[in-house]
Amino acid sequence: MTKEERHLWYDFLRNYPYRFRRQEIIGGFIADFYCDKAKLIVELDGSQHYEQSSQKSDFLRTAYFESLNIKVIRFSNLDVLNSFEGVCQAIHLAVEYTLQAHRVPAHL
């Protein structure tokens, strides 16, 4: 794990109320962090992700995950370093949103 991934894991996701797993393998791809209950992947992108070949690969990975009804949110490593609380809040909101989106109404 990168320094930024360790920071996000140890200072937020490890003790988050819904369980996240690190380096989760899904269909041959490795997700940085995955919450099965929320069907949510959190990806942290370093500078290499701004290269055209990496952007294409990221697009294909995201499309694959979304085909499995898994939402993907991405942050740069700089986001984690410079706006850690904002990243944590965005993850929390994404978890809440996806949990509500996957919830089946009681009358069904």
**Rg calculated over all Cα atoms:** 14 Å
The arrangement of helices and strands along the chain is HEEEHEHH
Number of helical stretches of at least 4 residues:
4
Instruction: Give start-end ranges of low-pLDDT stretches.
Output: none
The top level CATH class name: Alpha Beta
Strand arrangement in the largest pleated sheet:
1-2-3-4
Mean pLDDT: 89
Strand content: 15-25%
What are its keywords?
4 helices, Endonuclease, Chain A, alpha+beta
Compact description:
The chain has helices at 3-11, 52-67, 77-82, 84-102; strands at residues 21-26, 29-35, 40-45, 71-76. It is α+β, with helices and mostly antiparallel strands.
What would you say this structure looks like, in words?
The protein contains four helices and four strands; from the N terminus they run αβββαβαα. With 108 residues, the protein is an alpha+beta fold. It has one domain: 3-Layer(aba) Sandwich (Endonuclease, Chain A), CATH 3.40.960.10. The chain has a four-stranded mixed sheet, with helices on both faces. A hairpin with a 2-residue loop joins strand 1 and strand 2. The longest helix is centred in the C-terminal third of the chain and has 19 residues.
What secondary-structure arrangement, pairings included, does this model have?
Elements: H1 3-11, E1 21-26, E2 29-35, E3 40-45, H2 52-67, E4 71-76, H3 77-82, H4 84-102
Parallel strand pairs: 3-4
Antiparallel strand pairs: 1-2, 2-3
